[in-house]
Every structure is written in C-alpha cells, then in structure tokens.
Amino acid sequence: MDRLDNTIRPYAWGSPTAIPNLLGVEPTGEPQAEMWMGAHPGAPSRTDRGTLVEVVDADPAKELGSAAVARFGPRLPFLLKILAAGAPLSLQVHPDLTQAKEGYADEERRGIPVDSPHRNYKDANHKPELICALTEFDGLCGFRDPLEAAGLLDDLGVDSLKPYVDLLHAHPEDAALREVLTAILTADPEEMSRTVAEAAAACDRLGGAYAPYADIAHHYPGDPGVIAAMLLNHVRLQPGEALYLGAGVPHAYLQGLGVEIMANSDNVLRCGLTPKHVDVPELLRIVHFRAGDPGVLRPEASPDGEEVYETPIDEFRLSRYVLPEAGTTHDLTRPAPQILLCTAGSVRAGEHDLAPGRSVFVPAGEKAEVSGTGTLFRATVIA
C-alpha cells in the first residue's frame, strides 16, 4: 500500500473552510475546491515511489492487474476527489464515449491546441461521475417536467420569460426543452442580462423554492445559465446519499462537501454559469433532452458490511464501510487497483493509520486489511 500525498485545487468556487476542517488543519483563507486522488497527469497523487502516474507507468500489469489493463488500458481508469463547493459550479454536460472519441479526433484534425479556451474535447474518453454527500449537498441534475419548469418561470412575473413559458407547454416534451434551452443560450446578451436581473429580484422576493436561483444569480449576475438552471431538478442530498451523472445529463453542483469519483477524463461542455467558452451547437448535440427524476442513490449493503453505490459503468466502483468498532478487521483484497479514503474517525489500512481526508493506493492483488472506528470509502474498478 502507498500512502497518498494529494493536491488541492484552488478553484474560485471552492469553500475556504470545508476541506481544511475535514483534514483538521487551519484554513489558508483561499478557496480549496477539490482534492485529487489518482493518476491524472494534471495533479497526480504522490507516493514514496514517485507520483502515481510514474508508479503505474513503471509496471501497469502489476499495479492495475492484467484484467484492468486489458479492458481500460495501462492507466488508472478513475479519479477520486473530495469536492468542496462554496459557490455554484458551471452548468455542464459530458459526452458519451463515442462522442468523445469523435470530438477529440475532429479537433485534433483541425489543429485546435489542447489548451485552447475554445477546445471542447481534451481527451478521447467519456466522463461519467458520481457525487456522494458528506454534508448536506445541493445540486442540479437533469431536466424537470416541462410543465413544472413553466410554472416556476411563470410565477416570477417577468414578461420577457413568457415566450419560454409558452414553449414549455408545447409537445413533444423533448422538443420543447430543446427549443427553450436553445432560445436561452442564443438570446441577445443585453436583453438576457436584463431578464436575469428581473428574475433574480423576483427569486429574492419569493424565497423558498426560488432561493437556490437567487444565490446562483448573486454569483453569476446576468448569466443566461441562471434561467437555464430553472429548467433542471434541484436536489438536496443528505450525508451518504449520491447522484450518478451519465453522459448527456445537464448538471451543476451548488454547495456542500462530497466524495466524487469519475472516469479519468476532462471533457466538459458548458451551458452557463461560467465566463468560459460555451459552444452552443455542440452542447445541443450532446444534451439528452429528457425530463425525469434525478435518481438519488442510497448505498446497497452487503453481508460483509460494504455499502455499494451501484452505477451502470465499469471504470469505477464506489463503496463505503462504516466501521463501528476497532476490533473488527475487513479484508478488502481485490484483483484490481483501489484507493481507500477515510472521511471520519480513525481507520487502520495495512500499516497506515488514516485520519479524515487521508488515503492510500492499493495495487491489484495487494493484501488490504482495514480496521478501526470510522468511515472508509473504497474506489476501484469492475474488470
């Protein structure tokens, strides 16, 4: 097992206190948004043997297992994070694997630099992800029923929103959602800015179900994403609950602390709530215009105490153990790579004592016995 030394990313939306509080260290006063655990080249975890990228590259079959290498290639297929949102993240969507491969190849052919602000596809992989709440966690996930969205907009009493309200009453539903989102994102910027200002004032006045959108507008004044956000389901997760975000599902995280796991990709198409590039035609090609319940996940317990968050993909598998007493040992040995993360209490993993926010990498087949009193998240793959 390798103890991990992990990088914290200081994105502007990050909470200045949530990750320091978890780690038991003094805040720096700067935002601390994400702590990355894995072998992403942008911020690989460090071990006594070098970075996790270097460790895996030196012997992929030994570190990852031959089955994982055969299925996913010679790299760790997932990235684990602690995410601390102090302000809303951008409204975004991710491509499926075919779209990512095609989009990446197209932009490579056209010679768009990978670091260009107008580049959509940084790699050829998809980016399904799962967020599990450690505290109350607010987010947006998938489209509301169009009639519900129409009622939410109509009750604001903003005249310039009336055309969107009328469109949302049209059939079929997917076409109505597509037409409204297109209209929002292609509206005249000055007119949309005025609409957002009026809508934000109404949200402030009404409160209740409108409070999240008033907060979003406070952070992103005049942004069309404020109106687009009202087309989506607002979700408040309780600790231990999770959301799975598959390809094509528009979403945004608003506030809270959670454990996030995703396929090892950086492909994001933005819909709003951002000063970054929004490629409307490509976005509309990727989004799934389907209304429905966001599908809050709760872990399914197995007899050995493992609580698994079931998802439909194989690049990652997230589970947790709530260890009630120090005398019990769990054998987590697995023929696939693992990252073990403590989020509460004190956990012994092999020879390592893990306090909250501390983690280890377990190579495929390596003996992995854990004990203690606390909460341990286990990230691995299905190979």
What structural keywords apply?
nine-stranded antiparallel beta sheet; alpha+beta; globular; 383 residues; eight-stranded antiparallel beta sheet
How do the helices and strands line up, and which of them pair or pack?
Layout: E1 2-3, E2 7-9, H1 18-23, E3 34-38, E4 46-47, E5 50-51, H2 52-58, H3 60-64, H4 66-72, E6 78-85, E7 91-93, H5 97-109, E8 129-133, E9 137-143, H6 146-154, H7 162-168, H8 173-186, H9 189-206, H10 211-219, H11 225-229, E10 232-237, E11 242-245, E12 251-263, E13 269-272, H12 280-286, E14 300-301, E15 307-309, E16 317-323, E17 329-331, E18 338-349, E19 352-354, E20 359-362, E21 369-380
Antiparallel strand pairs: 1-20, 2-3, 3-6, 4-5, 6-12, 7-13, 8-11, 8-12, 9-10, 9-12, 14-15, 15-16, 16-21, 17-21, 18-19, 18-20, 18-21
Total number of helices = 12
Question: Shape, please?
Answer: globular
The class by helix and strand makeup works out as alpha+beta
Detail the poorly predicted runs.
none
Mean pLDDT: 95
Largest sheet: 9 strands, antiparallel
Plain-language structure description:
- Helices cover 28% and strands 29% of the residues.
- The protein is of the alpha+beta class and 383 residues long.
- Strands 1, 14, 15, 16, 17, 18, 19, 20 and 21 form a nine-stranded antiparallel sheet that branches. Strands 2, 3, 6, 8, 9, 10, 11 and 12 form an eight-stranded antiparallel sheet that branches.
- Helix 9 crosses helix 10 (211-219).
- The longest helix has 18 residues, at 189-206.
- The mean pLDDT is 95.
